[in-house]
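A quick aside before the break. I want you to see a complete sequence-to-structure record at least once, exactly as it would be stored in a machine-readable document. Don't worry about memorizing anything.
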Amino acid sequence: MTHSYSNPSEHVDTSGVESGVSKGEILDKNGFTIRVPISDRECIYKCLDNCRQLAGLDKQQVERLCKEFEIEKTDEQIKSEYPPL
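That is the input. The structure line, written in tokens, reads:
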């Protein structure tokens, strides 16, 4: 089956174009970009930040914890305060 449509634009060869790697990204073995792993502290802060308005949580407590996790601490200080469960 054939069709009558013909593309009016010029053909552009994009086979040699690669996507750029932004700051904070790395390429995996297949050439896909992935984010650089974040620290446990940053992960906890992002989770808390997303929970600021979550129903069932004390908003003042979440705010206090967010402020606490914004301050940079060493991994040893964090592990002593928040041991793994």
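Two observations worth writing down. The longest helix spans residues 59-70. The mean pLDDT is 78. We'll return to this after the break.
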